[in-house]
Amino acid sequence: MTTYIVKRILLMIPTLFLIVLVVFGLLQLAPGKPTPTQASASGAENTQSMEGRESYRIFKEQFNLDKPILLNLRYSLGPEDIIEDITVLADYARPVCPEDGTTVADCLPAQERPDSASVIAAQDRVEDLGTYITPALYEIAKTNKRDDVRAVAISHLSVNAQYKLRNEFSGSRSAEDEEYNKVVFKKNREIREWTVAPDATGADIDALLAEKWTPWMQEPENVERFDYSFNDKFFITFGDTRFAKYLSNILRFDFGISSADKQPIMPTVLEKMKVSAVLGFFSIFFAYLISVPLGVWSAYRQGTKADEAVTIGLFLLYSLPSFFTAVLVLKWLTVGQPFDWFPTGGFQSSGAEYMTTLERVIDIGYHMVLPVFCLTYGALASLSRYARTGLLDVIRADYIRTARAKGLSESMVVLKHAVRNGMIPILTLLGTLLPAIIGGSVVLEFVFNLPGLGLYMLDSIFVRDYNAIMAITLVSAVLTLVGILLSDLSYAIVDPRISFD
Fold first, then answer.
1. Domains of the chain by residue range
2. Angle between helices 466-494 and 2-29 (to 10 degrees)
3. Staple 249 to which of 254, 412, 446, 489, CB 3.0 to 4.6 Å?
């Protein structure tokens, strides 16, 4: 048994890796992306100002949104790969030619001027390429024939060429990191000043290049910085990606911070998981507690009027959507129409922090009566039918007739022989019920205003909080794998003929 458990746990590792890879890829390929404003549909538009662009650039770096998803080949980019985006930005800055035919220097016809969407996309691409395109930007600034294109290249060069800070967005920087960051911050402040106005002349650009950028590019430190060895290229290709950064964080049990509220993900997930765990555990507990005896009773009364009545009643309950029932019980049992027996929602009453432990448990139980009922009744029909079918298959077996022939009491035959072996179909479902702690209660958490994982997942999807979505998905995957393992192990407990040795 121990060997089997160890093998299954080891098998979970590559399974979890594949789950994370698939879900991560789907999230990155989904339309839309997080923005600093998060809840605003116009978030991308608010990043057009200089301050907005800088804030958005820092936001993307903080959550690794500026990196490619799986493979990073940016070290091979040259001037020809970015000249189109630089030209778009330069054209957008040019004045529009008047329709009355008035002559304006270096103007561009309105129909040839790039639209805002193209400009924002070009800005995003140039910013996301980071330091990898520093040599390409320098080459464009030095050799391009258009002065406005050269000026735009220098303005981005003063941003992309900056040095990276150590653990910039981490709260656990060492003293050495702090000292290094002070030096780098001073260097970056100087680099940010090496820029020109959009309408700078060729002479101004040449003077800046000769005085600042050319000596800087020729420094041994920077020559080595942009001369990538084979090992550097290998690490960048597979290591400097969004997925690699996320996976390295997971291996350290660090799920990052929320892009919505800038708070660590894991404490929030654990806090909300308490609510979903209470709701899911008691729902599963009562579902099995009621459905198994009901299925056994129905199996031994197969074909009777009582069996038919129970079957009809259970399937009537099964046909009622949980959200519909939740709205009805809220109306009938919480707001005084006709009864006012339960609270309208929430996990605890206000002022619960001043209650004793026993009072808090009673208060939580009082709040969870209606949600647990709504989440439980739908499972009664399916679980009881599985229990009934499994027992019907068993009670006709030869060993059951043999047990009766030995003179064993009917209760002993049912409980010790029939029920144990007839529970395998029910136990198989256990592997799928644990993840229901998260997914199965989304609607009910919304209706009853329960601050659980389901509602947190829904809110995270709306604001595209990738870190939160990935953390909840990983928790759900772990629960699924643990549930399947527990389901398999329970086979050996209820049926002595099954062994994993």
1. 46-251, 271-324+379-494
2. 150
3. 254
Q: How far apart are CA 131 and CA 231, in angstroms?
A: 18
C-alpha span between 188 and 186 (Å, rounded): 5
Residues composing the chain? 501
Q: Which CATH number fits domain 271-324+379-494: 2.60.40.10, 3.40.190.10, 3.40.50.620, 1.10.3720.10?
A: 1.10.3720.10
Q: Which residues pair with 399 in a beta bridge?
A: none
Maximum separation of any 2 CA atoms in the chain, in Å = 112
How many whole angstroms separate alpha carbon 414 and alpha carbon 65?
60
User: What was the pLDDT predicted at 209?
Assistant: 95
What pLDDT does residue 343 have?
Answer: 80
pLDDT tens per residue across span 156-197:
999 999 998 887 766 667 888 888 889 999 999 999 999 998
Helix (H, G, I), strand (E, B) or coil at 10: helix
Which residues make Cβ contacts (< 8 Å) with residue 386, sequence separation at least 6? 295, 425, 426, 429
Q: What are phi and psi of 50, to 5 degrees?
A: -60, -45
What is the CB neighbour count within 10 angstroms for residue 383?
24
The CA–CA distances, whole Å, from 288 to 116, 378, 383, 430, 433 equal: 59, 12, 7, 10, 11
Whole-number Cα distances in Å, 170 to 235, 251, 253, 267: 22, 16, 14, 16
Contacts made by residues 200-208, CB under 8 angstroms, sequence distance 24+: 200/147, 200/151, 201/147, 202/147, 202/150, 205/141, 205/147, 205/150, 205/151, 205/154, 208/154
Cis peptide before 338 (omega within 30 of 0): yes
* Half-sphere exposure (Cβ direction) of 88: Cα atoms closer than 13 Å: 17
Residue 33: which pLDDT band, with cuts at 50, 70 and 90?
A: low
Rounded to the nearest 10 degrees, the angle between the axes of helix 116-128 and helix 50-62 is 50
Question: 295 and 385 in contact (C-beta within 8 Å)?
Answer: yes
Q: Which residues 6+ apart lie within 8 Å of 8 measured at CB? A: 485, 488
